[in-house]
Design goal:
Strand order of the largest sheet: 2-1-3-4-9-8-7-5-6
Number of helices: 6
CATH class: Alpha Beta
Mean pLDDT: 97
Largest sheet: 9 strands, mixed
Distance between the termini: 5 Å
CATH superfamily: Class I glutamine amidotransferase (GATase) domain
Shape: globular
């Protein structure tokens, strides 16, 4: 299995995805957009694409011109029916790449909040009826054409969607580990200003080990689903 990762900031990495890939002896390459030498591979060089999160907006093309090329690349990967997973900013990139609008949401959502599964068909990934997920976002998106809406939360309607059988966009984080949660808190704690769906640093750090195990287990299921036909 050849996996390519789109990473936007050093402190948002693969989290629990990394040991899952390592256990399957996957070959992993990464485009680090925070490095001047960042380059994108040819589509023929990977089977699975993972687009990670980041504090920027997909609309920041004037300040971050590489976003234009990244969106083109994501669109081509989806069209080529690669297995594509977008997380937070990554999900917004998929939506934008396929022509949907990305914009500030009605509520910022930072912390541990439940998502609820939407009704869907037998050809889509099945989320549990409800699960406490880790969130850190202020923007949302319209569903791209042909997308199936898979999950929502009280603060944000569009939490997960699927395109065809090989592309999933997740607004929330299932890959979060105590270590990756610490990293984003450390680098982005200035965003923890009181709001209806913004938890305190103490609340974020108080999550028990079983909660991480539950979301990481669901991420394992997402990865297994997306790569089920990948060698």
């Amino acid at each position: 299995m050849r996996v390519h990762v789109l990473q936007h900031v050093p402190f948002e990495g693969l989290g629990s995805i990394e040991p899952w890939l390592r256990a399957r002896h996957a070959t992993v390459t990464t485009t680090c957009f925070f490095e001047a030498s960042a380059t994108l591979p040819a589509l023929s060089e990977f089977d699975v694409l993972v687009a990670l999160g980041g504090p920027m907006s997909v609309n920041d093309e004037a300040e971050l011109p590489w976003l234009r090329e990244e969106k083109r690349f994501v669109r081509e990967a989806v069209q080529a029916e690669k297995a594509v997973l977008g997380i937070c900013l990554g999900a917004q990139l998929i939506a934008a790449a396929l022509g949907a609008r990305v914009y500030p949401g009605p509520e910022r959502e930072i912390g541990w909040f439940p998502i609820q599964a939407r009704e869907h068909g037998k050809h889509t990934f099945k989320f549990p009826e409800q699960i406490q997920a880790f969130h850190w976002h202020g923007e949302t998106f319209d569903l791209p054409p042909g997308a199936v809406h898979l999950a929502r939360s009280e603060a944000c309607v569009h939490q997960a969607f699927q395109i065809g059988t090989r592309t999933l966009g997740l607004q929330f984080h299932l890959e979060t580990t105590p270590q990756s949660a610490d990293a984003i808190i450390t680098h982005c704690r200035h965003e923890l200003t009181p709001d209806r769906y913004v938890q305190s640093e103490a609340q974020l750090r108080a999550a028990p080990a079983p909660r991480y195990a539950e979301i990481n287990g669901l991420m394992d299921a997402v990865l297994a689903y997306l790569t089920r036909n990948t060698v």
